[in-house]
Write a structure and sequence with these properties.
This protein is mainly alpha-helical and 186 residues long. It folds into 2 domains: 105 residues, Rossmann fold (3-Layer(aba) Sandwich); 65 residues. Helix content is 51%, strand content 8%. The protein has a 3-stranded parallel beta sheet with strand order 1-2-3, with helices on both faces.
């Protein structure tokens, strides 16, 4: 019997299993005050280090929300912010449909840069998550990709072969399926 080349498949969440679109947030905020959405997103991304610190668990959810509400000039409350901030995702149904097939032969692990707000208010409701053997998320792991620490949290088999994992960069579903077929995974 030939040994399988792969035993674990690691998926990212954002823009792979759950594509997201900040335009949804922009439009909702613009309904509150014209231009507020673009102002918020521009300010948010120009202070991306703050976001990364939050995603890696170095800044509390409360501190993050307070800063976001400041940017929004307190035009919404924290509950509304969390809701709007998390309703930017859409399930990649075609890729999600592949998960049960892969689960029959492989351990599935989710490895994602994400935050507690998106988890609680957004993707945690997704039923496909139960197919994963492990969910490794940056805000709980204390590190974000591409930091080595988060990869070590997945599998410490010589730090995932000294971090030389066989990887596929997700571009779109068709390219991914083609790569998986090429590697005899599907």
């Amino acid at each position: 019997m030939q040994k399988r080349k792969y035993s674990v498949i690691v998926f990212d969440l954002g823009n792979v299993l759950l594509p997201f679109d900040y335009d949804i947030l922009i439009k909702r905020l613009d309904k509150i005050k014209p231009g507020l959405g673009k102002y918020f997103v521009d300010t948010y991304f120009s202070n991306y280090d703050f976001h990364r610190a939050y995603e890696s668990g170095k800044i509390s959810e409360e501190k993050f929300i307070e800063r976001m509400l400041e940017i929004l000039d307190y035009k919404i409350d924290s509950e509304t912010f969390c809701k709007y901030f998390s309703e930017i995702f859409e399930e990649n149904k075609e890729l999600i449909a592949l998960l049960p097939v892969l689960k029959k032969k492989y351990r599935l692990i989710l490895l994602s840069n994400t935050n507690s707000i998106h988890e609680k208010y957004g993707w945690n409701k997704c039923s496909f998550l139960k197919l994963f053997d492990s969910l490794i998320v940056s805000h709980k792991a204390g590190a974000v990709k591409p930091e080595e620490k988060i990869y070590r949290a997945v599998e410490n088999v010589k730090a995932a072969k000294k971090l030389g994992w066989a990887g596929i960069r997700f571009k779109d579903n068709n390219s991914l399926f083609k790569e998986l077929k090429k590697r005899s995974i599907i």
